[in-house]
């Protein structure tokens, strides 16, 4: 076991890669895996350890408790930068504490915002028990049947396109998107960054159930971007080439890696 309950609904986890994380003891999504294994999303974790270097600038869209934010904070070092976004205001105190506890506050910026295709206020649906499943899309019956007993609360959140940081950034070595169905609008809101070649590599989670009506829109968006080359990951963090059409033959892929060559 890699976790110890420390009170106040928090568990302290010692990760396999050396970081410390505070997690919510009542969460049924990330918390059980981290307590038992000390690692989450093994393939992406290993990929980042192999590829993120000192001095890199990286972006974490959908930071949750800050697992990947903290990991990348370690990897980019004092000369690097991590820019993180999390729409759920309930998770911001955990992320901030995890950043502080790992002494990486000098290189990490966290924003309580959703990344979207435009500047606007949006409905955001917070999941109570499976805290990693909150989404800009209202959860359908398929979700409620799969995650029995979960409850949903609707709030309003601020949203902005990632292109808002275009003038303040020279290069993004790696960009992670894990926002439970919001991927189409997130990508649409960074078209300027994509077209300029400022983003070198990005990853996103493919989940047909969460994308809902945006499934075909995401496919058509990616189809017109000939500069994108697609890969999936094995548990060692190695990339395996795959075509866009083969990707969309799957209902779910934990991590699609896109390398952008302008």
UniProtKB/TrEMBL annotation:
InterPro entries linked: FkbM_mtfrase (IPR006342), SAM-dependent_MTase (IPR052514), SAM-dependent_MTases_sf (IPR029063)
Keywords (A to Z) from UniProt: Methyltransferase, Transferase
Domain Methyltransferase FkbM: 60-227
Pfam families: Methyltransf_21
Biological processes, Gene Ontology terms: methylation
GO molecular function: methyltransferase activity
Name used for this protein in its record: Methyltransferase FkbM family
Organism: Thermoanaerobacter wiegelii Rt8.B1
């Amino acid at each position: 076991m890699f976790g110890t309950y420390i009170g106040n609904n928090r568990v302290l986890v010692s990760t396999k890669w050396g970081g410390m994380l505070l997690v919510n003891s009542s969460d049924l999504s990330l918390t059980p895996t981290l307590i038992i294994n000390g690692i989450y999303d093994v393939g992406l974790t290993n990929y980042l350890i192999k590829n993120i270097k000192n001095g890199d600038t990286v972006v974490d869209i959908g930071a949750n408790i800050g697992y990947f934010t903290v990991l990348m904070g370690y990897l980019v070092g004092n000369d690097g930068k991590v820019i993180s976004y999390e729409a759920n205001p309930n998770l911001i105190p955990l992320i901030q504490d995890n950043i502080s506890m790992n002494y990486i506050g000098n290189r990490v910026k966290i924003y309580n915002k959703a990344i979207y295709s435009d500047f606007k206020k949006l409905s955001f649906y917070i999941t109570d028990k499976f805290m990693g499943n909150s989404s800009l899309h209202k959860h359908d019956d398929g979700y409620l049947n799969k995650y029995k007993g979960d409850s949903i609360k609707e709030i309003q959140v601020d949203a902005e396109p990632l292109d808002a940081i275009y003038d303040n950034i020279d290069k993004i070595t790696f960009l992670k998107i894990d926002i439970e169905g919001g991927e189409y609008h997130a990508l649409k809101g960074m078209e300027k960054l994509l077209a300029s070649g400022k983003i070198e590599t990005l990853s996103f989670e493919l989940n047909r159930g969460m994308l809902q009506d945006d499934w075909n829109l995401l496919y058509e968006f990616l189809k017109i971007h000939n500069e994108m080359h697609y890969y999936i990951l094995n548990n060692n963090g190695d990339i395996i080439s795959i075509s866009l059409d083969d990707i969309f033959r799957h209902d779910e892929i934990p991590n699609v890696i896109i390398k952008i060559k302008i």
